[in-house]
Design brief:
By secondary structure, this protein is mostly helical. It has helices at about 5-35, 40-50, 60-85, 100-115, 115-120, 125-135. The chain folds into two domains: about 1-35; about 40-135, no CATH class.
Length: about 140
């Protein structure tokens, strides 16, 4: 192998390592941001995690933020189901099918937030938005669960 090819390989390898390090740093920042959250607002959920205008950066960082969106929505669904089990008389009446996929859940929430744009500007709690979206999509047909 000629010296030129060795240098070229070394430069390409260095660039790849640097790019990988930048990606890892960006993903670390996303994780750090998530671990420092005190609550999730509707705007933060929509714009920062579920594919909105603030979802920027390397694709791996975008993917990590979207996973955060999915996990948040799934967490609210789990909370809702547990609330309905423990206190059915006072729990919100959303009957989310057990076979609803995470993609379907995120789409329902996203569509609801988009359809209620003026309201979302005033709403601070993303959990309320997720529950309202689920209630609108899957209202319970009867009180007994």
């Amino acid at each position: 192998m000629s010296n030129f090819v060795k240098v070229l390989v070394a430069v390409v390898a260095s660039l790849m390592i640097a790019a990988h390090a930048d990606t890892q740093t960006e993903i670390f920042k996303v994780a750090e941001e998530a671990s420092n959250l005190l609550s999730m607002s509707v705007i933060k959920l929509r714009e920062g995690n579920c594919g909105g205008n603030l979802t920027q950066g390397h694709q791996d960082a975008k993917n990590a933020k979207f996973v955060g969106c999915v996990m948040y929505v799934l967490g609210v669904v789990d909370l809702l189901r547990e609330w309905q089990r423990i206190d059915p008389a006072n729990a919100p009446s959303a009957c989310v099918p057990r076979n609803a996929t995470s993609g379907e859940l995120v789409t329902v929430v996203h569509d609801y937030i988009e359809a209620t744009a003026p309201w979302r500007e005033q709403q601070d709690d993303a959990t309320t938005a997720v529950i309202r979206a689920l209630k609108e999509k899957w209202p319970c047909s009867n009180i007994r669960r």
